[in-house]
Amino acid sequence: MTPHTSVALTPIAFVHGIIEAYQRRGLSPEAALRSAQIPPTLLTQAHARITSSQMERISGHAMRELDDEALGWFSRRLPWGSYGMLARASISSPTLGIALRRWCRHHGLLTDDVTLSLQVQAGHATLTLLEQRDLGTLREFCQVSLLRNVLGVASWLIDSRIPLRAVQLAFPMPGHADAYRVLLPAPVTFDAPATVMTFDADYLSLPLRRDELALNQMLRHALPLLVQNYRRDRLLVERARQWLRAQPDQTHNAQGLARLLHMSVRTLHRHLHEEGTSLQSLKDAVRHERAQDLLQRTHMPVKQVAEATGFRHEKSFIRAFRHHTGMTPAAFRRSSRLHGTVTDTA
Predict the structure, then answer these.
(1) Domain range for residue 305?
(2) DSSP 112
(3) pTM above 0.70?
(4) What are phi and psi of 192, to 5 degrees?
């Protein structure tokens, strides 16, 4: 068996959670540890880490051997195929929001030890996890796994990265807290009243991009969803446009926009490139949208429209506007008046 070469980031504490699940059943975890190439000496090191591939192997082996996809978290087992059943119940949903609400409702049919719920408020979607039974030493392992499971499935359903805004966790900060920059990449608060994962509510309106055939293929290799990092973000371009429109003073450079989008400048440029655009193209498009709006709705002189949209000179504005629309600003305004779209005499 070839050794694992990927970076080891998963806390050894999660391996101990799987070992505890075996112990509760009076079974030995040796075969599971062997399948993931986790030596006994590693288990004695409190700050040790394993790779995502190792975590996938030991989890898959344990789920089958224990016939429990919950790995001992709950008062009753979730037999192999339980989470596949949840996915099948959600795959026919027209949007991600409906799919996640179905997932939360049906998860309650599998166990009443925890409840999952989805709320939307002020443009934010929050997935809340509440314990209805004390999960004890398996609290962190259970809660983090459930959040990553929901996030992974949701991202897969819409084939898009879903960037998290914030995560609140209802347990104390562990010694491996630095691992959360990978486990749940977002600002994380520990010792919270409830475990909550927050993201942009606009993702809930996206249609599902998977069908039954894709689901069958995914379920053969479902565990990587817990560790897969989607690079594509189907809402990134629109979110960038919204910030450019709403906060022009804070988005005049890449650093300001990246900060508002909670990502690095390098990541911003990479994602925009993957979506077939660039920051300059977006900025130009937003400036021309603003210019067209002012020309249509107001009687501002062209020189003032140029200044309002960030052009230093009227001539450069006219040249850029003609290149973008095929018309001069004056011709565009005459056309708008002809069609009755000028509504503001300010």
Answers:
(1) 281-338
(2) S
(3) yes
(4) -80, 160
